[in-house]
Amino acid sequence: MSEKFKNTPFQVKLPLFLGLAMAVGILIGANVFQASSNNPQSTAKSYLKYRDILSYIDRDYVDTVNIEELSDFAINKMLEKLDPHTAYIPAKEMDVARSYLEGDFDGIGVEFNIFKDTVFIVAPLSGGPSEAVGLQAGDKIIQVDKKNIAGVGITTQGVFEKLRGSKGTKVNLTIMRRNEKKPMDFVVTRNKIPTVSVETGYMVDNHTGYIKVSRFAANTYDEFKSTLVKLKKKGMDRLILDLRGNPGGYMDRATRMADEFISGNKKIVYTDGKGTKYDNETYAHVRGEFEEGPVIVLIDEGSASASEIVSGALQDNDRALIVGRRSFGKGLVQMPIPLNDGSELRLTISRYYTPSGRSIQKPYTEGSEDYEMDILNRFQHGEFFHPDSIKFNDSLKYKTAHGRIVYGGGGIMPDVFVARDTMELTNYLNELYSKNLVREFAINYYQDHKAELQKIPFEKFKATFEVTDKMLDEINKEAKSLKITYNDKEFKRSKNLLKNNIKAYIARSVYGPEGLYPIFHETDADFQQALKLFDQANKLSKGYVQLGINKFRVD
């Protein structure tokens, strides 16, 4: 990860975004926790009962037990009685949970991957301490502080624990570099490493900008605005905002992003909790950088929480054309409450509603597995391929600012549905990705051809570089060594996508994220469809109201 972990491109991800979306949710600033005044006697009675039972177990139970572990288990079982997004995070897991949404962290600054039980550096982060000492893409980290980490079953969490540390501390790395016979030692001084949530922003053509936002973390709004300004200076007058697979994060970063598109003092979102303490209405209030011009927002089943705030606000205010598939459906707001042992309670304190009054939260029932299985069920029931399979309740019908019909009760339904493209997805391709073979091959190819690749301008690389059959044969040979059964029919089906992804990952090593996405997008059905829809998006931005497919009227 940055220290971040990546496997496959978003084109070939299976629809299993549930865990991340549930873990992150919507976060707002924590308040100092105060004892409840609603039912103090019952609260005190239950607390004393729990304390007594825990004390008896610790003192008198026949076997020795881990009281802290037992307590964590009891807390988690108690929270299961509430909603799917209220969560308890043990102290030992807080570093990783917090780093996902913090604006930066202390570490060595590498993106890594684990392949064949070995940690590979995918890329040293630009300007970071690893780049400064000369670590390179493709380097294998075999020892950290003279202790082996290769071949010992290390996990992503284990890598985090070894590479991260306080700013100014040093870590000794022993690496093996391709075409070098002996290990090489590096001393890296940890420093503050920025996390990046705007993965890329580039000009698709002379008019069209593209921005990919992967989450709503502390620095997301600042990253987004600087990218927006940069693209405007390059001539952007229409935009694709990609929120696919974005599980959410800080609510205020989402509302500030939406405000960049919405003029005047129109409503963006409102929340409703117990009593009035957590009730809030948020309106547009600044002169945004892109209040005019067509906008298309890409969403899918992995777009949750803060992503749904942005897409819902832009849809309800008729400011953007929403394209893709129905979003996740999370409309509950969590407040992070730090506990005295370093753990944290993320407690649902309100529901949020889009400007038209829609609750996007999908139904949940205590004890039912339907909520956890919802994304998989959508896939199996054909929703990713046929919009007619989605049934909305007429009682949850709402209208946008210009009178378009939208629905609540289970995610944001796009204005234009795009079926998931699975023609080239096969089990064989998924196995190649599950073993990290594609990324590993691309890194090694870059290492072997670095000098010549770095001389090629990106546009020339994009137009002329070809992944040859010989290169594919090498991957298939490596797959066989890993006991992946070759399937000729599936290989031929996936061949074009595989070639595209290899080329994109090689471009990532040479040119950074700006080289990755323009090549990925050549086989991205959602993106390609969006490029064809700017006529509709333009009419929407000028006050036309969509009546049906390609039918509009002026409001």
Automatic annotation (TrEMBL):
Protein origin, superkingdom: Bacteria
Keywords of this entry: Hydrolase, Membrane, Protease, Serine protease, Transmembrane, Transmembrane helix
Transmembrane segments: 12-33
Pfam family, one: Peptidase_S41
GO biological process: proteolysis; signal transduction
GO MF terms held by the record: endopeptidase activity; serine-type peptidase activity
GO CC aspect terms: outer membrane-bounded periplasmic space
NCBIfam families referenced in this protein's UniProt entry, alphabetically: prc (TIGR00225)
Protein name: S41 family peptidase
UniProt source species: Adhaeribacter swui
